[in-house]
Amino acid sequence: MTWEIRCVYESQDGLGEAPLWVEEEQALYWTDHVGCRLTRWSPESGTAKVWETPGPVGSFALRQRGGMVGASDAGFLAIDLDEGQFRAVVDPEADRPENRFNDGKCDRQGRFWCGSMNKALAEPSGRIYCLDPDWSVRAEAADFAFKCSNGTAFSLDGRTMYFADTQGQVIYRFDLDPDSGHLSNQRPYLSTAERPGLVDGGTVDAEGYYWCAMVGGSQVLRIDPKGAVVLAIDMPVPRPSCVTFGGANHDVLYVTSQRIFMTDEQLAAYPQSGNLFAIEGLGVRGLPEPCFAG
């Protein structure tokens, strides 16, 4: 397998996250969490549009009825980019100011899942939440606590949720009941303790393999359904942060990256840090991400 890695947009994000390919627009959206901005980039024109966000937005997804749903320091958001509105709807952790919401995605039934995390990475105060299409929210996996949530993705049949405890250095699998939306049977999928870096954002390809960025480890991994790493791609920057498939045939792997937590010497050595990258020639395709049904 031969692939090519290109820097396709010099976004210089502090913390690039949550890349989302929008089929109808043939464009990629992503957020800069620390820069408080959301970017839309067109590979055909090479141009981008940037919206300022009222605070850090950790993740987002399209809504079936238009606009987006998102997750932030203020809980779950209804986003209307045409009007430039980021409206807080419900915050299940209003009583936990030490936390914020981080990585999230929609399952195959149109529910939006997002994990919270401790802002200072000091305490295991994070929880997993499910936002149902009626905008009611509930905590799942009540006995599971962690410092930083990441890597949320869903199997092809929608019956498995992948979820990474970044600081704990473990990617887990949960059984997901497609009707009730409840999680059960938490078990380890892959320990990353012996690998460089920490697990960040992930996705699943059309063959059911899981992909993730290893922030601080300069790699993107492809993992088979049994939990074996079958491919490790060395990135030209040390802190790749999240991955998603896009392009007209969903055969381009887009990778965001970050500049935060890097020293001046590291930034001088890796000046493309914080930019958007595309990996082509993998011979693998992804799937369109589901929309929020609310």
Overview of this protein structure:
The protein is an all-beta fold. Helices cover 2% and strands 49% of the residues. It has one helix and 24 strands. The chain has one helix spanning 264-269, and strands spanning 4-9, 16-22, 27-32, 37-41, 48-52, 57-62, 68-72, 75-80, 85-90, 99-106, 112-118, 128-131, 137-140, 149-154, 160-165, 170-176, 183-191, 198-204, 210-215, 219-223, 229-234, 240-246, 252-257, 276-280. The strands form six sheets. It has a four-stranded antiparallel sheet with strand order 1-24-23-22, with no helix packed on it. A four-stranded antiparallel sheet has the order 2-3-4-5, with no helix packed on it. Strands 6-7-8-9 form a four-stranded antiparallel sheet, with no helix packed on it. Strand 16 and strand 17 (183-191) form a beta hairpin. The protein is globular and about 45 Å long. The N and C termini lie far apart (41 Å).
